[in-house]
Amino acid sequence: MSKTTLKPYVQKSTTVNHCYCRACGSTLKHTFVDLGMSPLCESYVTPEQLNQMERFYPLHVYVCDRCFLVQLQEYVSPQDIFSEYAYFSSYSDSWLEHAKNYTEKVIGRFGLNTSSQVVEIASNDGYLLQYFVSRGIPVLGIEPAANIAQVAKTKGISTVVKFFGKNTASELAAVGKQADLLAANNVLAHVPDINDFVAGAKILLKPKGVITMEFPHLMRLIEENQFDTIYHEHFSYLSLLTVEKIFAEHGLAIFDVEELSTHGGSLRIYACHAEDNSKSISQQVIELRAREETAGFNNIEHYFSFAKKVKETKFKLLEFLISAKRKGKSIAGYGAPGKGNTLLNYCGIREDFIDYTVDRNPYKQGKFLPGTHIPIFHPDKIQETKPDYLLILPWNLKNEIMSQMSFVRDWGCQFVVPIPEVNVYP
Predict the structure, then answer these.
(1) How many CA atoms lie within 13 A of 145 on its CB side?
(2) What is the CATH number of the domain that holds 381?
(3) What are the tens digits of pLDDT across the range 313-345?
(4) CB atoms inside a 10 Å sphere around CB 357
(5) Are the C-beta atoms of residues 231 and 342 closer than 8 Å to each other?
(6) Domain match, 208 and 99 both
């Protein structure tokens, strides 16, 4: 694998159409997909804010022709996005099960015990660390959103309310908080300065420690047309090839990888210090690297066909909704996820198509979706109104949701899943 020298992250210039790769510093010249203008996907609107101005930002995604990192420009700082956040991991039963299974796996594989130190970056509400605590393993969470960190603390999980990078890592290492296991699920894509983040992971890791990170796999995003996973909170869209380059530049080696079904298809990478000779590179890494190379992920032309697929999905979803509404059918949404807001805003879907949506998260109930202003209710609203169709916005949880909401079939309601293309389930 060729090595690309990665320069420090450079903030985009103020000149329109002149921005730089956050990994290697090259000028970004190639569009991956342009989803128009959209508000921040977690900026839910209160009733008092309905008649106030909302800020919209471009969802114009570029791909670097040097390191092949797919990325958004930084229009809003992480402090503005994540200091108070509306996503609580514990509201998904399947995600809790995923976290529990991961805990059991790594405890056994790496021999973690009461003398080990587990640190999680972006620890959210303690959804993962609680399972290590139950096994008596010391933990530390690092979470920038104070409102979510407080929930973790009520569970007895020690949590530092800070953004992660070299400075935070150095502070923690200085007081003996280096990690035997450093976990970071669905956060690598959320950091604008990816080099600072990975350099911090290097600092916080013990000499024989292991890093695990999970992130949506760019290969799955392209192959399965998952354009709605693009939103301002996701700065980067990652392949194994690109992540290997970034990690190698900071003295870290990826020695194993797993392909997961979560979030529509994710990778879980296992990394260690490059000088740690106790861990050999697995066959899974070699095979996935070869598959990405064969598919064209180190060739800029590979990235140019995605935008056409996205437009087709938009047309098909609108055709279905228009047809259903002309027949007098009622449509409700299920969920208020970030991906749903990208989908609805890009397609121009508002209350003229969807009467309302529901969500289990009390933080979102009583508010309105950003941009589209579709109202968010408790799931009990479904039973009250008995819609003809239920549009599942967090389609990555479709099996869990269809099981939980199976009672809607009693009145003939059908489930609609929009990605990779419209599918209707009786």
Answers:
(1) 21
(2) 3.40.50.720
(3) 999 999 999 999 999 999 999 999 999 999 999
(4) 27
(5) yes
(6) yes
